[in-house]
Amino acid sequence: MNAGTAPRSSPSCAVAFGGGGARGLAHIHAVEALDEMGIRPVAIAGSSIGAIIGAGMAAGMSGRDIHDYARSVLGSARNVAGRMWRASGGTLTDMMRGGLQLGQFDIERILGTFLPEAIPQYFEDLRIPLKVTATDYFGHELVVFSEGELHSALAASAAIPAIFRPVERDGRVLLDGGIYNPVPFDLLHGMAEIVIAVDVVGGPVANGRRRPNAIDLMLGATQLMMQSITAAKLVQTQPDVMLRPPVSRFRALDFLRIDAVMAETASIKDELKRAVESAVEARRNLVG
Fold this sequence. Notes:
Blueprint: E1 13-17, H1 27-37, E2 43-46, H2 49-58, H3 63-74, H4 77-88, H5 92-96, H6 107-114, E3 130-136, E4 141-145, H7 151-157, E5 167-169, E6 172-176, E7 194-198, H8 214-236, E8 241-243, H9 258-264, H10 268-287
Parallel strand pairs: 1-2, 1-7, 2-3, 7-8
Antiparallel strand pairs: 3-4, 3-6, 5-6
Helix pairs in contact: 1-3, 1-10, 4-6, 6-7
């Protein structure tokens, strides 16, 4: 099939968006590419930032909608600071009193000021089924949300340890879904004929200018852990399409660098289109 179009007989597709903090802004390119191909996934799964982007898509936002909204919010440091102040429930002075502390940020309140209005309060109001991962800290297990209250599930999935406070829901203490399942393509097994996965974990890179600080080391070590988890999963099962945008030079909290992230990863749009075309052709040859 030609890039930019999907034939009427196209097989069904599902997409998994992985976790990676600001590196996950690259997912927007994947959403735009699917839009341009006329592909509407039958199911979506997401971890951390991937759950948030996935929720936007599941709510009916186009890739262009998500792109424009993200740039309008993250393109201005003043706008981001204002939303953070509102999320703190006080002033910047109150928020920073005693200095920056580990785990001081309330991810539920922060998401409340950053999520677009198009994302509904409940899973049941989404247009596409969505699975959101989180980690049960004391239960030592993966939690997958697909019904009920959506915003707290997204907050739990994005609660990066030592940066954000854990989310308490249903009697559980919940953390970042990427800890147990960085790229949750396995949750889509059997739900579509073609499964697409976008991995934005990346890995620590030397920048030649400074030694990594404690936060860098903690987040970098988490990247390495997530890489190993995904590698182990790929031995057991594989998606039909796996994309890894070039995101390693960006840090998890580089949201204000949205223009740089988007420019660096723009090539994945064409890469995704070619990969989906190949997967569709391979499936046709298999069944025909």
